């Protein structure tokens, strides 16, 4: 495809990675970002002699492309995407583009919650077992950049619904769907069904030789499996019922069978990741490992000593007998539900931010039974007040992480937990959820 013009929209990690790979493959590449481009990415593009623009989209420079690779963050409603669609120029994701240029096999993990943890754990298990494996997608260095620069046999990819929406010929060798709960509904016409269909694209193009791993306890996933045919071999996991092929729990022990070799067993008390949601994540990763016929001892060792990712139920400090936990990565209701479920003390909950059409009713029971005070952290907290004013005595508004932590310090009683688990995006007061988590941790360390 010598000198054919490819335009990349968005110059973050995925966009710059795609630009690197496109340049290497001999395309005429142009990068356009409607916002400002971070200095490090500008330097990368300049060093590669790839032309780019920022703070604008110049249609004349974009609409002459044979293909457009778009950042997952750009919605289909954006004017530039509509203009591209009118001309029938194909729009694909960076993942779709990168897969064309590698023979590596892929393990693709999606779901509303637990993606990052499961992706990191799966990568850790494979790496420890001596597999030549890369980690990419929504996490770490971009897939395209790694395809351009490295040689791996396998990739573990964290895949969001936004990425899946622009993946067409891509096929996962092993697909993992953890759960489907309401998230990002603003991008899916506020219909859960549309979002669920997007998640199911993880199984598209799979054949009988591939594996599809899913949660048999997740109602929306089961609904979708009744509607859509999945050709791959199915491996369900459940904590409520026994399954023949896949993973289940009996007497506090995980059992995994994939028909390939001896059964895998491990006590849930020996898992590095504790809490119900993490048992699901560990089961999913364990099935992947067994499908790949890794040794039981190796899997057990990895699942027993894995360290969880930053900003996900991350212990920060214990001060005056009060525990501080950073769960800034909880940007939706379900993640916050998991966090509340996994804490066994009274809670001072710090939540709020950019509300993505949240329905707070599913949190009500847990808030009533565990939460003694809510500290709102965001510019507009009206909906949180409306949702919980009858369940919690104290609801306070704050406008910075430092202020939220100071208020929490005064409200928390001995033996309780201060939990930052926002259930909302962070863009009103912070750069991203990492920035929010880091500011929270810094404020706790100042106490």
UniProtKB/TrEMBL annotation:
Task: Note whether Ligase occurs among the keywords.
Answer: yes
Under the GO molecular function aspect, what terms does this record hold?
A: UDP-N-acetylmuramoylalanine-D-glutamate ligase activity
Question: Keywords assigned by UniProt?
Answer: ATP-binding, Cell cycle, Cell division, Cell shape, Cell wall biogenesis/degradation, Cytoplasm, Ligase, Nucleotide-binding, Peptidoglycan synthesis
Primary residence? cytoplasm
Where do the annotations place ATP binding? 111-117
Q: In which pathway does it act?
A: Cell wall biogenesis; peptidoglycan biosynthesis
Give start and end of each Mur ligase C-terminal domain.
311-424
**Family, similarity comment:** Belongs to the MurCDEF family.
What name does the UniProt record give this protein? UDP-N-acetylmuramoylalanine--D-glutamate ligase
Natural source organism:
Pedobacter montanisoli
